[in-house]
Amino acid sequence: MKFKFTLLITLLSIIGFAQDLASLKSESQKMLDYSISLDFEKMMDFTYPKVFDIASKDQMLEMMTNMFENDQMSIKLEKIDPKFSFGEIKKIDKQVFCKFSHNNKMKLSFKTDIAGSEEMIVDMLKENTGASDVTYDDKTKSFYATLRVDVLAVADDSTKNIWKFITLEKDKAMLSMLLSEDIIKQLGLN
């Protein structure tokens, strides 16, 4: 009897994990699809809500809109195989976390003449985005950058226990404003 009970508990925990991972995969794909379509308002629905304590949704929306389309350039994300890679789902106190990564392909088109600056822009894109592959297409006058993006998924009371996302930047400045140093350390993000 004890063996059957232990087996049942083990199976339930595996099923529970699979459901969490399944929902994480589903929500991650939705977030990525909205990113590719540049539906910034829908993207905000997938953003960890404490981000909006730093900058309001309206400010974030304006910033993203201006970043992706302005007088100097336009940025589009292209649909590619994201090759999601999910880490371990970790529960810390009343929060659940999972770090994952995915591929992104960005098309950057300048609206001004950049003749002679192509190589410098390729180098700048590699350095600033961490892109492993940056090319320039003279026909379209566009740069294409393929990069790996690291994301932290969080489910807690503030998200109604639904996965929400924080893009992990190199400097981790925003992360330290959203999570305690102890949690950052436990997640190995320091």
Short description:
This protein is of the alpha+beta class and 190 residues long.
Describe the structure.
With 190 residues, this protein is an alpha+beta fold. The protein has a single domain (2-186), classed as Nuclear Transport Factor 2, Chain: A. 41% of the residues lie in helices and 26% in strands. The protein is built from six helices and seven strands. Strands 1, 2, 3, 4, 5, 6 and 7 form a seven-stranded antiparallel β-sheet that branches. A hairpin with a 4-residue loop joins strand 5 (133-137) and strand 6.
Order of helices and strands: HHHEEEEHEEEHH
Outline the low-pLDDT stretches.
Answer: 1-19
**Structure annotation, total helices:** 6
Mean pLDDT: 89
Annotated CATH topology: Nuclear Transport Factor 2, Chain: A
CATH class: Alpha Beta
- What is the count of distinct domains? 1
Gap from first CA to last CA: 45 Å
CATH architecture: Roll
Q: Structural class of the secondary elements? A: alpha+beta
Largest sheet: 7 strands, antiparallel
